[in-house]
């Protein structure tokens, strides 16, 4: 909507509306930032530039997955008691919007209504939270060593899907203006983020990146023949980034 909240909402609800929007905006920025970092870490070729045993970044991945699931379920999956969720906030807005604006507002909400797939993902997220993150159920403990790790959580695409659906609902509730969901330092239009600088530093200091110049005989005889074409492309991407000639 492009109207002012003062024109659209009942006068005694405006402050509550603004506080609610600020509250959910804070959590959505946190969610977008966590998934942004997670995406960058998952995409980085650690095995090529740093080896397989990356304990720190493994823990980053696990913990950022978990906090993302917690944030999503906290905002959207719970309905009991007096819990403050995005859906309950939406329903309150519908009740407190002026009659002249209610129908177009409800039409806007229909466009961002959660589909069946989103509801299934939310239910899975809630199960994961209840069985593994917030609590440990006996069933989870019994099955822990029988299931591969990827079945213990969400994949990145599923997290991003839920993030985008929650963001669309939030933006539909915004009466005054839209909202950007990443901090300025993580906005891809404003330069390189700190996580990208950190990962670039790992690549820059890796042994393999400058091996053609520093160990040319070993490189030609052993390392270069062992590389796949995608690995060569990755090395060239980073060599160009740091002013080195392609291999």
Give a written overview of the molecule.
This protein is mainly α and 247 residues long. It has one domain. The protein has helices at 5-8, 14-43, 46-49, 55-76, 86-96, 99-110, 116-133, 138-143, 156-173, 194-204, 211-214, 216-226, 229-241. 18% of the residues are buried. The model has no long low-confidence stretch (mean pLDDT 89).
**Which descriptor suits the 3D outline?**
elongated
Tally of domains: 1
Largest sheet: none
The average pLDDT is: 89
Helical proportion?
55-70%
Radius of gyration: 23 Å
Q: Helix and strand string, N-terminal first?
A: HHHHHHHHHHHHH
Low-confidence runs of at least 5 consecutive residues: none
Number of helices: 13
The first-to-last residue Cα distance is 53 Å
What percent of residues are in strands? under 5%
Oligomeric state: single chain
Q: Structural class of the helices, strands and pairings?
A: mainly alpha
Number of strands: 0
